[in-house]
Specification:
The chain is α+β, with helices and mostly antiparallel strands. Among the domains are: 96 residues, no CATH class; 78 residues; 108 residues, endopeptidase domain like (from Nostoc punctiforme) (endopeptidase fold (from Nostoc punctiforme)), CATH 3.90.1720. It is built from 13 helices and 29 strands. The strands form 10 sheets. Strands 23-28-24-25-26-27-29 form a 7-stranded antiparallel sheet. α2 crosses α3 and α3 runs antiparallel to α4. The radius of gyration is 25 Å and the shape is globular.
Length: 567
């Protein structure tokens, strides 16, 4: 089960496990990404809505921020950067927004709540109390506390009460579907297995099956440190209890996120792992290297041209043409575009929905929010950030210069053009072949339908490449012809684009929302490079830990969800 097809480290894509700096290690176990340091900090994230922070006891009452001061008293956790206790969860969360602003007279001091007033955790912002009580009586979450249920073996070691509350809240807000239920149950199973408690058969009893990629099978108790091409000895050095996950078949080993035969392992170069066929550029852009089929690295010397600079674009280091957009002046995931006026070449930034200004450095103020009650404002914020943290829905950005077409009002695309289709909550991408036909990816188990198929592909890990009529794929939605990357990546010749596209028709390909989605597929055909701004924005929106933490407090999950874990 895969989180991402790559991680971003110092602006460049990498495949875990990696050691970016002395004393820091990043690795993947089962369905979570972990960051571990040599000073006693552990952070894990499931790529959706659940993060966990563990800190050594030596830091007790010596930290501050969204997780409180680690003194074991939850009532005083809502303390702002000036040391003042606040009651409201949203006021507390906003006070720690980066960059943190402190008054000049700020001194660290103990905070006491003399009356021990309960903080307002915002638990009922997204789900009112009466609905939550009804959920408690009818929800499938009750399986967590059943005395004869699959989790009973763990009750004496870890109380399920907190996990039940979290499950009830999540299913109340998001709906009592299998995906929401299974995410909640997985958190309890993980906590149990970390204590060495075996939890067998729970997936079969809850319809929470785990789909595994090729050359692997589900295991309820596999090594928490599986062997990988980057570290074949990892299992023998592992002192963690077993975990559930997808275990490679005998004779296979992890290469990145896929199980491959040992002979197909890639290359390790300067403590970074590269898959066979992967090319990369050294940090100083003095060499470009290839991981060959013999698992060796072949490098050749390069020199950036007179108008080029050594930089990073689309998470890849290389020599890029110097200009107004290289390096990019746009902040907060703004997209830079070069423009020409009468005298010179300049730039413009297309900002995300949350920022504005020439360089996207100013937080956007929602004017409609002034007409909302405080409760409405809180709820709106919770929903928006909650969606971002889940990375299920990607924000749609439409500039004022976009020309939209529909099946009833078609445009005039040319063979090789990229087609951006605006679904209700995201963009679907296709490549125009000619004569009204496009090529795009759809779920492997869906026929050639339009909106539903591409929506389901968001949750798939495999896809089928199909040639379909543009009007059928668009359906009742709108689209635009959008070759927006042409200024950064020169398009391949039209004949080569069509040849590459036709090769893929009716083939099954891997799919990953953040690393290998429909936009990555069509840009690979047009440019020979996988590019996806909407995936990049989603990754940034997740923000590994910070975005997850902010989503927690905005969704009202701070009531004991930010647990202080001791070990």
């Amino acid at each position: 089960m895969r989180l991402y097809s790559f991680e971003k480290l110092d602006g460049v894509r990498v495949i875990p496990p990696v050691r970016p700096h002395e004393g820091i290690r990043i690795y993947q176990r089962a369905t979570r990404i972990y960051l571990e340091t040599d000073f006693g900090l552990y952070v894990s994230f499931d790529g959706n809505q659940n993060a966990e922070i563990k800190l050594a006891n030596t830091y007790q009452n010596r930290v501050e921020g969204l997780c409180g001061n680690f003194d074991g008293i939850y009532r005083n956790d809502f303390t702002n950067p000036d040391g003042v206790w606040v009651r409201n969860v949203n006021v507390f969360g906003e006070s720690w927004k980066v960059p943190v602003q402190r008054t000049a007279s700020r001194r660290r001091r103990d905070v006491s709540t003399e009356e021990e007033e309960e903080p307002d955790t915002g638990l009922f912002q997204g789900c009112d109390e009466s609905t939550l009580e009804q959920q408690n009586r009818t929800s499938r979450c009750q399986i967590l506390i059943e005395s004869n249920g699959p989790f009973a073996n763990c009750h004496s070691t870890i109380s399920p009460d907190f996990y039940l509350t979290s499950c009830l809240f999540d299913t109340c807000v998001e709906g009592d579907d299998n995906a929401t239920l299974c995410r909640s149950l997985e958190q309890y199973v993980l906590a149990c297995q970390e204590q060495g408690i075996s939890v067998e058969g729970w997936r079969q009893q809850t319809l929470c099956s785990m789909e595994c990629p090729a050359n692997s099978n589900y295991s309820s108790c596999m090594s928490a440190c599986p062997a990988s091409c980057a570290d074949l000895t990892s299992p023998s050095e592992c002192d963690s209890p077993c975990v559930e996950g997808c275990e490679c078949l005998p004779g296979y080993v992890l290469s990145g996120f896929d199980c491959v035969p040992y002979r197909q392992c890639g290359c390790t170069y300067l403590d970074k792992y590269y898959e066979i066929g992967e090319t990369f550029t050294t940090d100083d852009c003095s060499q470009t290297c290839l991981c060959t089929e013999s698992s060796s690295v072949s490098c050749s010397n390069i020199v950036c041209g007179g108008e080029d600079i050594c930089g990073i674009s689309n998470y890849t280091r290389g020599c890029y043409r110097s200009g107004p957009c290289m390096p990019s002046p746009c902040q907060n995931d703004g997209v830079c575009s070069e423009t020409t006026n009468d005298t010179s070449l300049t730039f413009s930034c297309e900002c995300t929905e949350l920022y504005t200004g020439d360089t996207c450095g100013t937080e956007r103020i929602d004017q409609t929010a002034t007409d909302q009650t405080p409760e409405e404002k809180d709820y709106t914020a919770a929903i928006v950030v909650g969606v971002l943290a889940g990375a299920v829905v990607v924000l749609i950005l439409i500039s004022s210069a976009v020309y939209l077409f529909s099946a009833a009002n078609p445009g005039n695309p040319q063979p090789g053009d990229l087609i951006e289709i605006f679904r209700p909550a995201y963009q679907h991408w296709a490549l125009y072949l000619g004569d009204g036909y496009i090529i795009n990816v759809t779920p492997v188990d869906e026929g050639p339908s339009s909106s539903f198929a591409s929506a389901k592909s968001v949750f798939s890990r495999k896809a089928r490449v199909r040639m379909q009529l543009l009007k059928d794929v668009v359906g009742n939605d709108t689209y635009q012809i959008n070759n927006k990357y042409d200024n950064t990546y020169p398009p391949l010749p039209m004949e080569e684009i069509i040849r590459r596209a036709e090769y893929y028709i009716d083939q099954e390909v891997s799919y990953d929302l953040l690393g290998n989605n429909c936009e990555h597929f069509v840009t690979l055909l047009r440019y020979g490079e996988r590019v996806s701004e909407q995936a990049n924005r989603a990754i940034s929106a997740i923000g590994f830990v910070t975005a997850a933490a902010n989503a927690f407090y905005l969704l009202g999950l701070l009531r004991r969800r930010f647990r202080e874990r001791q070990y």
